[in-house]
Amino acid sequence: MSLNREKYLAFVTLLEQLRSDATTTQIVAPELRQRVATLQQFFGQQIVPLADENWRVQSYQTEMSKQLRLLEIDVMFFQGARQASTVQTRLQTISDRLTTLIQYCDAILQPEAEGEK
């Protein structure tokens, strides 16, 4: 189970880095779009194959998949933003969605930390 934990932790690291960059730097739309694509690729290749028989983990993975698709749409809206206030609103929405994804990962990792199966 340690390898699974490492993959979730790596995913959380990617999510946190993107959230930090989206809120503290002047990130440009093409870079943001590329990094979201990288997140989706990592999720599809590293996280989805960890299909757990635990229904709770499966539920979180389903929600994470949905949130990643919505994140892609958020980035498209960000690309279309022209006014500074709209850009900031879109970046906040993206940050919030990344926070949700991080919370889902934390929820999956939590039982392992408590020694539950």
From TrEMBL:
Source superkingdom: Bacteria
Source taxonomy: Bacteria, Bacillati, Cyanobacteriota, Cyanophyceae, Nostocales
Organism of origin: Nostoc cf. edaphicum LEGE 07299
Protein name: Heterocyst frequency control protein PatD
Stored InterPro entries: PatD-like
